[in-house]
Design a protein that fits this description.
The complex is a heterodimer of chains A (about 150) and B (about 500).
Chain A: E1 2-4, H1 6-29, H2 42-64, E2 66-69, H3 76-96, H4 98-109, H5 118-139
Helix pairs in contact in A: 1-2, 3-4, 4-5
Chain B: H1 3-17, H2 20-38, H3 44-55, H4 60-85, H5 94-105, H6 109-142, H7 147-163, H8 169-183, E1 186-187, E2 194-195, H9 209-225, H10 241-244, H11 248-270, H12 275-290, H13 303-318, H14 320-326, H15 332-343, H16 351-355, H17 357-377, H18 382-389, H19 393-412, H20 415-433, H21 439-461, H22 468-471, H23 473-507
Helix pairs in contact in B: 1-17, 2-4, 2-17, 3-4, 3-9, 3-15, 3-19, 4-5, 4-6, 4-13, 4-15, 4-17, 5-6, 5-13, 6-11, 6-13, 6-14, 6-17, 7-8, 7-21, 7-23, 8-21, 9-19, 9-20, 11-12, 11-13, 12-13, 15-21, 19-20
Chain lengths: ~150, ~500
């Protein structure tokens, strides 16, 4: 427990810095034009500055408001497992084709809570891969490569 | 409005909605809607996001019909889970648990299910009728709007959607602006300048909305739910046809709550940022207030089940009015509907109804068909839903992640978009941990490019004079309303924190 909303201060800071960078990037990289003939940089620049202003406002409000705040719990393991499985898919899909990418991804992601035995993981992966084949290849007729080998 | 034009619209709509393809997607939509409505942990938003990639490959009308079916179908399914299990399948069904589950415990689940289904259908019908009669009037009025009015209207819509329902109005507005900023990535349509692409060809057409929606509402949801969603246990209660027959007293008690719920729902559905969730809470509160026997509420009062469930169904239908006639979405699901239009090269706004009457009226008439299917199918399928509820989450979440990946990939055969999912999942997770709402971000993302366009047009017309937004009477009024809303939201947030401090002082 602590007396300030550090979540808001942190989040506000990210928005302030991000907004400033966004606005300055527009100012330095794109033409601003004039108000009556706005070019590509004008609108984004102001959007960035407004974002920064709102971020700063969130920080100020968090500093003024005192109360009891708990630290958030972050599920690092679940997060890492799920994200890694998405990364595996993204990495494999062009190299091995869709079906192997799905099978690897499903097996990997089911480690997030690890309630299934290895055999069941593999069965689930194959069933889902078949389902994806039915929906996207048979149903919608998309030009996706089911199997590939491009390393 | 003359009768003849109504008949003409209905016949255009029916001929579109009754085509074999559209009937199929309507059925698919409402069926999936009921399904995901029943399953706790997957709401309409997740389902609509997951099916968004499919809409790239089918006709725009069929795509809208399907997504809309999921949306209003989920309200029917949500009440089933609430009554049978005391688990809201969707957030807007949470109130139905209060009296629905006690009714089930008293062995009256069948009556509750039948009456909510009938109430939902009546409320849905009222919502659709309102849409049929008010849309043309609204469109006739809105066709006179110029870019100045449009920009102001979008500001009002975004501010309302991001402040009313959220805990912190400033955070909500900040997330809208962040969404607008992300929406500006890609090619500037006026000058063909590439903005914020950082050399990635995958960003030339902007950040993929599908990738962001999947990341924020699919992946983030899974990461949060894997360890928290318990297994729903249904303690066998066979529901026979005989158990569903309501007593005369049940019917008498339900008639006015259904109508009041429909009225409340229709009203809140049109307003941006409120929708079914607030409508259902409001309907429950009103019923308890007007009841002569408020002590029955919470112990299985049928009014407390049918009224909120009618309200959220009416709201789900009327939410389409501002979205389809003005191009102003009141919620994320509605913003996704708009994005479907944009992807298919259609411009949201009042001209849509005039130029694409078949799409507009086809969608409206599909609501009738969908609601009829729901009326007929919801109850006979209860046996199936009970089995669906037994599917554990550890089989479900790998499937969700799989659909996210293959779905995002399938849109442009682009692995880059899948990597984007990864980036925005990290962002989405920490946004949720830090309690920054994700829904306004998506609204900003969809409306951002349109807002910039209208703003630039308005500036050209006014020769760069910003006061044009105040001097145009309609625009000025809208902006004044926005300001009032913002002040009210900030003040009520401030008052809440004062009250909290006051209770802390008295407690210590």
């Amino acid at each position: 427990m602590h007396s300030r909303a550090y979540r808001d201060i942190l989040g506000g800071a990210v928005l302030t810095v991000g907004g400033l960078l966004y606005g300055i990037y527009a100012y330095t990289h794109y033409e601003l034009g004039t108000m009556s003939a706005m070019d590509s940089g004008m609108f984004p620049m102001w959007v960035g500055y407004i974002l920064a202003g709102l971020g700063a406002l969130i920080i100020v409000m968090a500093l003024v408001n005192k109360g009891e705040y708990a630290w958030p719990v972050i599920e690092w393991r679940t997060l890492a497992t799920v994200l890694a499985s998405v990364a595996i898919f993204a990495f494999c899909v062009r190299r091995t084709g869709v079906i192997p990418a799905i099978i690897l991804q499903v097996i990997f992601v089911s480690f997030a809570d690890n309630k299934l035995s290895m055999l069941k993981k593999v069965i689930l992966a194959c069933v889902l891969a078949f389902l994806a084949y039915l929906i996207f290849k048979v149903g919608l007729g998309l030009p996706i490569h089911l199997f590939d080998w491009q390393f | 409005m003359e009768i003849s034009s109504i008949i003409a619209n209905v016949s255009i709509g029916l001929s579109t909605a009754l085509s074999l393809t559209n009937l199929f997607y309507c059925f698919l939509g409402v069926f999936l809607g009921m399904l995901i409505g029943v399953v706790p942990g997957i709401g309409a938003l997740v389902a609509v996001s997951l099916l968004l990639p499919v809409t790239f490959h089918i006709d725009a009308t069929a795509a809208l019909i399907m997504l809309a079916g999921i949306y209003y179908g989920s309200a029917y399914g949500g009440s089933t889970a609430a009554i049978l299990l005391n688990v809201p399948g969707t957030p807007s069904s949470a109130v139905a648990c209060l009296d629905g589950y006690p009714m089930a415990q008293q062995g009256r689940a069948g009556v509750a299910l039948l009456m909510t289904t009938v109430g939902s259908f009546i409320a849905g019908s009222i919502g659709i009728l309102l849409m049929m009669f008010f849309s043309p009037i609204l469109v006739a009025y809105a066709l006179k709007f110029g870019p100045t009015e449009y920009f102001s209207l979008m500001v009002l819509g975004l501010v309302a959607a991001s402040t009313i329902a959220s805990g912190s109005p400033v955070k909500g507005v900040a997330m809208v602006v962040l969404g607008v900023a992300l929406g500006l990535v890609g090619t500037d349509i006026y000058t063909a300048t590439l903005r914020y692409d950082f050399g990635f060809p995958g960003l030339y057409d902007g950040i993929s909305l599908v990738a962001i929606a999947m990341a924020l509402f699919g992946v983030t949801e899974v990461v949060f739910s894997v360890r928290s969603v318990g297994e729903a246990r249904f303690k066998g209660q066979n529901i026979r046809m005989r158990d569903m027959i309501p007593t005369r007293d049940d019917v008498r008690r339900s008639v006015f709550p259904i109508l009041r719920g429909s009225a409340i729902g229709s009203f809140f559905g049109v307003l941006p940022g409120t929708g079914g969730l607030i409508a259902s809470f409001m309907a429950y509160a009103v019923e308890k207030r007007v009841s002569k026997t408020p002590q029955r509420f919470g112990h299985g009062a049928i009014e407390g089940v049918v009224s909120p469930e009618s309200a959220n169904n009416a709201a789900d239908q009327t939410a389409f009015i501002p979205t389809m006639t003005l191009g102003i979405p009141g919620s994320v699901v509605m913003a996704i509907m708009l994005s479907v239009l944009i992807v298919h090269g259609l411009v949201p706004g009042p001209k849509l109804m005039v130029e694409h009457a078949d799409l507009f009226w086809g969608l409206v008439m599909s609501f009738w068909i969908g609601n009829l299917i729901l009326l007929v199918l919801n109850i006979p399928l209860i046996g199936l839903w009970v089995k669906v509820l037994a599917v554990p989450y550890h089989l479900l979440y790998p499937a969700i992640i799989m659909f996210v990946c293959i779905g995002v990939y399938s849109v442009h055969n682009s692995a880059f978009d899948v990597w984007l999912v990864l980036v925005f999942s990290v962002a989405g997770y920490f946004m949720r941990v830090l309690e920054f709402p994700a829904a306004p971000l998506l609204l900003g993302l969809v409306l951002g490019p349109i807002m910039e366009e209208e703003f630039r047009r308005a500036m050209i017309l006014s020769h760069g004079d910003l006061s044009t937004f105040v001097h145009h009477p309609i625009s000025g009024t809208i902006l004044a309303m926005t300001l009032a809303l913002l002040m009210w939201a900030i003040w009520s947030g401030f008052r809440r924190s004062l009250q909290r401090r006051a209770t802390e002082v008295t407690a210590s």
